[in-house]
């Protein structure tokens, strides 16, 4: 009887406490203490990059800066699904970053999943801080941006390079494209990589990938003319298809926002 009771109590306490599961990149073994006390380091970090449903902070640790993304607690069904059925966003961000490689996205440092009552609790993805100069957002909206055409064309090259490697970023939106100037070349990196597809891309995949940038026709033309040359297709045809996908996307987004009452 006593045993039974003790066992029962033991299980009870285990389900109350938070269980942590993590993976730390072999090159960042010196960050073990950061991982084990992530909650404290995250709370102490004063530089908040972004704070919506997910919160992103720059966390200094032993003389280096890391970017820590804290994923909010999903709704109850996904808390269950991420525990038992599919990898969490933190884990996917880590694994996809590894697969993409440091040339394409900031190097992943670790992911941490926490579980309470057998369900997913706040989870974290840690990456190297990429000291970029700007995201593509200001460039897309400001036609006077220095070297704009050149950067847009180099962005088309970068996108083509991703597509040729069978990489489709399902959230290819302006805040997820970071740019750093290196002499006359620009270095592009993608972030927010938890929704990726790896496959041979169709023409539809390729051209609809530009839709979320939500740019005007003239800007689209600069990027898509270059892209058309790279895939060896007529420029006017490629531009018309890409614009149609953009309009479809804009229409769906407006509908969605109306339904949500925004
Ligand atoms: N590794 C990184 N290096 C530098 N800045 C980053 C990094 N990761 C995220 N950021 C910054 O945080 C912002 C939001 O990150 P993101 O992962 O896209 O979050 P969200 O899911 O909220 O869109 C980016 O636009 C960028 O400014
Ligand atoms: Mg983003």
State the gist of this model:
This protein is an alpha+beta fold and 262 residues long. The protein contains ten helices and eleven strands.
CATH class of the largest domain, named Alpha Beta
> What is the CATH topology assignment of the largest domain?
Phosphorylase Kinase, domain 1
CATH architectural grouping of the largest domain? 2-Layer Sandwich
Number of structurally distinct domains: 2
What's the total helix number? Answer: 10
The radius of gyration over CA amounts to: 22 Å
* Percent helix: 40-55%
Largest sheet: 6 strands, antiparallel
Q: Give the integer mean of the pLDDT values.
A: 91
Major sheet strand order: 1-5-6-4-3-2
CA-based shape: globular
Structural class: alpha+beta
Question: Which ligands are bound?
Answer: adenosine-5'-diphosphate, magnesium ion
Tell me the number of strands. 11
Which spans have pLDDT < 50 for at least 5 consecutive residues? 1-14
């Amino acid at each position: 009887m006593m045993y039974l009771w003790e066992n029962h109590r033991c299980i009870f306490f285990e389900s109350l406490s938070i269980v942590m599961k993590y993976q730390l990149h072999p090159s960042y073994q010196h960050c073990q203490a950061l991982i084990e006390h992530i909650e404290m380091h995250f709370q102490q970090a004063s530089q908040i990059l972004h704070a919506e449903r997910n919160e992103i902070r720059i966390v200094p640790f032993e003389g280096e800066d890391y970017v820590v993304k804290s994923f909010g607690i999903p709704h109850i069904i996904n808390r269950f699904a991420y525990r038992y059925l599919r990898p969490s966003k933190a884990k996917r961000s880590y694994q996809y970053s590894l697969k993409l490689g440091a040339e394409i996205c900031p190097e992943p440092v670790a992911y941490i999943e926490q579980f309470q009552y057998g369900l997913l609790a706040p989870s974290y993805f840690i990456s190297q801080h990429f000291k970029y100069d700007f995201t593509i957002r200001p460039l897309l909206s400001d036609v006077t941006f220095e070297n704009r055409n050149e950067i847009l064309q180099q962005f088309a090259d970068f996108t083509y390079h991703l597509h040729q490697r069978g990489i489709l970023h399902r959230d290819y939106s302006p805040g997820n494209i970071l740019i750093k100037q290196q002499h006359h070349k620009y270095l592009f990196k993608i972030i927010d990589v938890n929704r990726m597809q790896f496959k041979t891309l169709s023409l539809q995949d390729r051209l609809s990938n530009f839709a979320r940038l939500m740019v005007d026709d003239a800007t689209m033309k600069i990027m898509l003319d270059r892209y058309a040359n790279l895939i060896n297709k007529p420029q006017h045809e490629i531009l018309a298809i890409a614009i149609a996908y953009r309009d479809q996307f804009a229409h769906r987004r407006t509908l969605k926002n109306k339904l949500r009452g925004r």
